Amino acid sequence: MKLRKWTRFGQIVALLLLLLIIAAVLSLRFGAVNTPLREILAELAGGEPLVLKYRLPRLIIAVLTGINMAVSGAILQSITRNPLAAPDIVGVTAGGGFGAVVVLLVFPTWSAAGLPIAAFAGAVTAAVIVYLFAYQRGGIRPTRLALTGVSVSLGFHSLITFLIVKYALDSSQALVWLKGSLYARSWQHVEMLWPWTLGGVTLALLSHRQINTLQLDEDTVTGLGLRIQLVRVLLLLTAVGLSASSVAVSGTIGFVGLVIPPLSKWLVGPDSRLYLPVSALLGALLVTLADLLGRVVLPPLEIPAGIFTALIGAPYFIYLLLIRRAQPNKSRSR
Q1: What are the backbone dihedrals phi and psi of residue 270, each rounded to the nearest 5 degrees, phi first?
Q2: Transmembrane residues, as ranges (predicted)?
Q3: pLDDT class of 290 with cuts at 50, 70, 90
Q4: Res. 328: pLDDT tops 60
């Protein structure tokens, strides 16, 4: 049984890697100027600017962003035991969006250098507010954490709307950023993002036993002797670091952390040793395809990648709400 589980895991990982490679080649191939494959190889070998300077860093950022958001969502859903928990649901994405909008609209002269810093600071601030309001004597409870996150997220979205209305004439750049666009990303952005991805994913994988334990009910976790509140806070910090760094570089690409973790568990089961790597690959594939579609659907106009992830995520979010609403009704009927 165990051998069969790991065999299935290997097959799914191999398939996802193949699909990701295909998506990566297509991402390098298509854009404002379509480039034949032989020219891509020649440019990569010769160091020509089109692919190496513009498309390759954009592709890498799409992959890293997908990994970060998917793994962050997997951690949040595990520590809260709630399939609705995700960076964009618990306030982190909205906080980052608010920080970026403040820079873009209120202090536009800072936008080049200050945008990633402000977005990261906003995301971390939102996470701190959620934690402080969710904390009660004895620590934080998963349900309280999720509900507080939704409330804080709504509050930041209201502030974002207020700023966009107030600075309506200058809000076009902010609106594009809020939809999660990877336009004009460079190697500088890659350098900002990859250490967070490497560190966060490594910590998550090393914490697989704790993540598996936290998926059990509260009484069982306490009975096993796990320092539950300390572990939960450390994993929460890891999830916040992954999602905040992505928001700082890529904008608010939503629903990746909501959709991918349940799909990964459906494919390989609830063992975090298996579903965390699968989540990372699925997240990378989703954001890469979303960015590719944004470039090829209405050329030369670019549609932000976040719009395509939302088209997938929003119906799934409604589906989850309906399923969770139906479950209590079934239990009462019994």
Answers
A1: -85, 0
A2: 55-76, 88-107, 113-133, 145-169, 233-262, 274-297, 303-323
A3: very high
A4: no
Q: Which residues touch 30 (CB under 8 Å, ≥6 apart)?
A: 292, 295, 296
Distances (CA, A) of 63 to 27, 35, 194, 244: 11, 21, 10, 16
Please tell me whether the overall predicted TM-score, pTM, comes out greater than 0.85 for this model: yes
Q: Tokens 């065999």 correspond to what residue?
A: 7
Give 139's strand partners. Answer: 136
Q: Judge whether 303 lies within some domain.
A: yes
Rounded CA-CA distance 269/174 in Å is 39
d(CA 4, CA 8): 6
Spell out the long-range contacts of 216-221 with Cβ–Cβ below 8 A and sequence spacing 24 or more.
Answer: 217/81, 218/141, 218/142
Write the pLDDT tens digit of every residue in 123-144: 999 988 988 888 777 666 767 7
> Which residues form the domain of 270?
2-326
**Largest pairwise CA distance in the chain:** 69
d(CA 102, CA 97): 9
Rg (CA), the chain: 20
Residue 334 lies in a domain: no
First to last CA, the chain: 34
In a domain? residue 331: no
Site of tokens 């906080």 = 95
Residue pair 174/252 in contact (Cβ under 8 Å)? The answer is: no
Question: Is the link from the previous residue into 300 a cis peptide, with omega within 30 of 0?
Answer: yes
The tens digit of pLDDT for each residue in 213-234 reads: 887 776 666 666 667 778 888 9
Is residue 111 very low, low, confident or very high in pLDDT (cuts 50, 70, 90)? low
Q: What residues have CB less than 8 Å from 93, skipping those under 6 apart?
A: 87, 123, 153, 243, 247, 252, 254
The enclosing domain of 26 has a CATH number of: 1.10.3470.10
Flag whether 333 is in a domain. no
- The count of domains in the chain is 1
